[in-house]
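Open question from group meeting: does this chain pack into something compact, or does most of it stay loose? Before anyone orders reagents, we agreed to write out a predicted structure and look at it together. Recording both the input and the output here so the notebook holds the full record.
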Amino acid sequence: MQTHISSVLKNLGILELNSAYSTGNTWGGNDAHIIDSFSPVDGKKIAAVQTAGKEDYEQVIGTAELAFKTWRTIPAPKRGDIVRQLGDALRRHKEDLGTLVSYEMGKSLQEGFGEVQEMIDICDFALGLSRQLYGLTMHSERPNHRMYEQWHPLGIVGIISAFNFPVAVWSWNTALALVCGNVCVWKPSSKTPLCAIACHRILAKVLADNDLPEGISSLIIGNAAGDLINNDKRVSLVSFTGSTRIGRIVSAAVASRFGKSILELGGNNAIIISKDADLDMSIIGAVFGAVGTAGQRCTSTRRLIIHEDIYEDFKNKLVSAYGQLRIGDPLDQHHHVGPLIDQAAVEMYTKAIEKGKAEGAVFVVEGGVLSGHPYDSGCYVKPCVAEVENHFEIVQEETFAPILYLIRYKTLEEAIALQNDVPQGLSSAIMTLNLREAELFLSSLGSDCGIANVNIGTSGAEIGGAFGGEKETGGGRESGSDAWKGYMRRQTNTINYAATLPLAQGIKFDL
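Structure tokens returned:
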């Protein structure tokens, strides 16, 4: 395994294993330190990475400010072509980068490849977008006047991403921010620094090959950089992906300086299983949604709200399906479930199970931590299923682990109320062949989430649509549709081509 990963790192332009890495020649100030990247797959150290100090941060921001002066003057379609080249480079590195994502984060190899494909897809989307940064024209109430609106880049976009999608979330933000004329400073999760370094190297080569200045896209590693970004008025927009708890801190810090933020926070996603559902299809959607990425997606399925007429039958099918899950090395494509990211995640999982039982949860599929070979890292756990009440405190929380809760309902109105009765509002779904149920679920009387699906699970999203949610999920939108507007500033323009200056509302001001 280590020999294979060593080859992957070399192919991606990362230094030898166990060596310190810095993204700038002068990094390593007095407040910098070394962090080690360990794989949850086998518990082995992959490499040591040098973090950035405050002096390093100042250098990065200064370089970004200079780069913005050049980058914003390049026509948007030309910026789009640079992002196209990034997509082509990712195609060439898909296998190596996907493998690194799987090994450093712990998701299945197929999911690792899929994450890189998302990066490629958003580059394709951004290329087309670069010719579609449209404004509007409006009729003025004054004669011989023309009004229109246009969009300008913001400046420096700070991207703070989480471990569970160590490369895709960066690309969603970066591809759009770049075609909009911004420059980016990325602070990745300290749990997956090597994935970030690999992406930075790939994009840096594209920029260098086009004789573009350093600083259009920068990487800064270390938790201290997050606070610096959040409180820096030179960073016009902060895109933060992470927990609701930290999101509150980020939101307050950025808002206090009147900066803009895009928040992608917690999810507590439910699938309503109607008595009119295709149960076989529903089982597939529920199981993958709950155990994919070992339950470490913000869109993971946390709750199944099941009609009472089919509850027992569906529960039995679900228990049978869980009995067929294979847990193990995610680089082995025969396995369905890989490890949690680290020991802290395992502790959170075990505490959630204990809390659930204390509140009255009845586990129909028991959980537990796996030990011994081949689970040497101590990060492998059993996906579990519990019967609960929606009001249980543990059910109201987001636990980043493969724990699935089952809840009964009688009427669709009750099911929708249960689904909405959590603090989060990211993703939701209903499984039904009943057209009226589907339409009600998607209406203003239905799901209160940013994503609402019919006959497809909660997990994952296509890049063509805007991604994000409501309530404690933060209200942010990334990726497709018109999410690009979040990375730009709107300007309304009025042009007077008359020989006089008529005032609005007929005001007279004679001199």
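Observations to bring back to the group:
Residues 16-28 have pLDDT under 50 and may be disordered.
The first strand starts at residue 34 and ends at 38.
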